[in-house]
Specification:
The complex is a heterodimer of chains A (71) and B (531). By secondary structure, chain A is mainly α. Chain A has one domain. The radius of gyration of chain A is 19 Å and the shape is elongated. Chain B has one domain: Cytochrome C Oxidase, Chain A (Up-down Bundle), CATH 1.20.210. The chains are: A mainly alpha (71), B mainly alpha (531). Strand 1 of chain A pairs antiparallel with strand 1 of chain B, so a sheet runs across the interface.
Chain lengths: 71, 531
């Protein structure tokens, strides 16, 4: 059965705030990965640097997916 | 289980107020409506598909006979490179985003995407990037010709066409990152009350996971091509061995992006097939939870297999064995999905309208492509088959018979809802069968060519490869002409198709089918409550 929720159940300013927070987190991850790919070249040898970044990216994905699957 | 109880009365969540939005070209340039932007993405992707297809036909025309008949070898290399870039970044990915724009807000009961204006920017970056990429053909030196993978040192040495390509890749990457931020935020924050994550339609799940993949890997690609740019013009030596760099480093970084990229291209297609099969089998999707877990597993494992594209660079055997085993492992969750689709159809009340034909065709031929991928995962086999036409056959089976078939199925499935008009079923079936037959005529012989040793990316070949090349070229022209049937079918439906009911497909059960056909400009401004 589908009922219509009132607009008050989804307050616009709170929705916008939540959306902005989510977007900023995702954008910062993208920026870190971009900078990390280039900076990794200069950190601890190319293999170690890129390896650390690679694990960070895999870790992000693990957390991102598993958090949502648990809900 | 993802079925959503709802009543079938049309009109829920419909905006009955008069829509105040501009008309004409201003509408399409300034729109922030997810339906309009979805339409823009889909038409753009189809145009790019035709552009890339013409390049493919030029390639196949040259390869019809051994010898160099039609194009210069350097231009052939440019056609090869830009065909790959256009199809991946201009056709498949924007089509997937187009489906996301249309369907994600509708399927979760949201009024629009989280960031509607950024949605507009995400789209309009793409035609600009496409112009940059295609204009590289007319600059001195011509377009990039190093293959779509842009390996140094060749990509560091070529002309300014490579710079235009790098900028185009940057812009398309920015578009993808903005789009994926939008999609993730929309799905996480704007679902209708009562729609938990495990009640979302599987198409929404596959796009959520795809968007996470995009956030993770597009910056990596941007970093790699930025380093190419600085190596070309700013004196760095990231990939120049003489300067202390390593060209193989580029391959590692590129394929760390590149393998998740292929899953970015296929996961939305999995979601479309998971929507179509239950509708036409009139049975709920078998194993909803396992489908979600399998999709997540594929995404995570996709980060651990990149070097299977590099088995011949001189990697230690231990590394080769690791990547071989993980590549074989990724077949397991993929097989789970195939089994679940088949199990959904088992004892279902099936009908075979055009969307279902494309979905079943997808299952058959994506599985063929997957099997050839398993063959290539074996290191000793790949040592022989790397850079041969066997690889070309493999990825065209998974990307064309995979992604493209699913997208065609999705268009036929949702067009009645989007446009309010039914397509001509006879035309749809003609399109499917012609596409299916000519696709196989084109690409199946490439397995034989690869096994016989024909290398990739060559404008000329030894005469023993002639027969199958002729077959493939004939098939390619048939495949290309078959797509005109699709264009005609869509235009005919939009302009003069019979009116579509709100729910033309008896077994469909997602939220968009509770709304009238065609969809109103604004939908779900009052969120539905899902129980």
């Amino acid at each position: 059965m589908m009922e219509h929720a009132t607009r008050r159940e989804r307050p616009v300013p709170a929705q916008r705030g939540a959306n902005t927070r989510t977007a900023l987190i995702l954008l910062s991850i993208a920026v870190v990965f971009f900078g990390g790919v280039i900076a990794a070249r200069y950190s601890g040898g190319s293999t170690a640097g890129v390896g650390v970044l690679g694990f960070a990216i895999i870790g992000f994905l693990l957390v991102a997916i598993l958090r949502n699957v648990r809900r | 289980m993802s079925s959503i109880p709802h009543d079938h009365a049309a009109g829920h969540g419909v905006d009955h107020e008069h829509a105040h939005h501009p008309g004409g070209i201003t509408r399409w340039i300034t729109t922030t409506n997810h339906k309009d932007i979805g339409t823009l993405y889909l038409w753009f992707s189809f145009i790019m598909f035709l552009v890339g297809g013409v390049m493919a036909l030029a390639i196949r025309a040259e390869l019809f006979q051994p010898g160099l008949q039609l194009v210069e070898p350097e231009f052939f290399n440019q056609l090869n490179t830009v065909h790959g870039l256009v199809m991946i970044f201009g056709a498949i990915m924007p089509a997937a985003v187009g489906f996301a724009n249309w369907q994600v807000p509708l399927m979760i009961g949201a009024p629009d995407m989280a960031f509607a204006r950024m949605n507009n920017w995400s789209f309009w970056l793409l035609p600009f990037a496409a112009v940059l990429l295609l204009s590289s053909f007319i600059v001195p030196g011509g377009a990039a010709s190093a293959g779509w993978t842009l390996y140094p040192p060749l990509s560091v040495q070529t002309g300014m066409g490579m710079d235009l390509t790098i900028f185009a890749v940057h812009i398309m990457g920015a578009s993808s990152i903005m789009g994926s931020i939008n999609i993730i935020t929309t799905i996480l924050n704007m679902r209708a009350p009562g729609m938990t994550m495990m009640k979302m339609p599987l198409f929404v799940w596959t796009w959520l996971i795809t968007a996470y993949l995009l956030i993770a890997v597009m910056p990596v690609l941007a970093g790699a091509v930025t380093m190419l740019l600085t190596d070309r013009h700013f004196g760095t030596s990231f990939f120049n061995a003489a300067g202390g760099g390593d060209p193989v480093l580029f391959q590692h970084i590129f394929w760390f992006f590149g393998h998740p990229e292929v899953y970015i291209m296929i996961l939305p297609s999995f979601g479309i097939v998971s929507t179509i099969i239950p509708a036409f089998a009139r049975k709920p999707l078998f194993g909803y939870a396992s489908m979600v877990y399998a999709t997540g597993s594929i995404a995570i494992l996709s980060f651990l297999v990149w070097a299977h594209h590099m088995f011949t660079v001189g990697m230690p055997a231990a590394g080769q064995v690791f990547f071989m085993y993980v590549t074989m492992l990724i077949a397991v969750p993929t097989a789970v999905k195939v089994f679940n689709w088949v199990a959904t159809m088992w004892k279902g009340s099936m009908t075979f309208e055009t969307p279902m034909l494309f979905a079943i065709g997808f299952i058959f031929m994506f599985t063929v492509g997957g099997f050839t991928g398993l063959v290539l995962s074996l290191v000793p086999v790949d040592i022989v088959l790397h850079d041969t036409y066997y690889v070309v056959a493999h990825f065209h089976y998974v990307l064309v018979a995979g992604s493209l078939f699913a997208f065609f199925g999705g268009i036929y499935y949702w067009l009645p809802k989007w446009s309010g008009r039914m397509y001509d079923e006879a035309l749809g079936k003609w399109h499917f069968w012609m596409t299916f037959v000519f696709f196989n005529i084109t690409f199946f012989p490439m397995h034989f060519l690869g096994l016989a040793g024909m290398p990739r990316r060559v404008p000329d070949y030894a005469t023993q490869f002639t027969d199958w090349n002729e077959v493939a070229s004939i098939g390619a022209f048939g495949f290309g002409l078959s797509q005109l049937i699709f264009l005609y079918a869509v235009l005919k439906a939009i302009r003069s198709g019979p009116p579509a009911p709100a729910r033309p497909w008896e077994g469909s059960d997602t939220l968009e089918w509770t709304l009238p056909s065609p969809l109103p400009y604004h939908t779900f401004e009052t969120p539905p409550r899902v129980s």
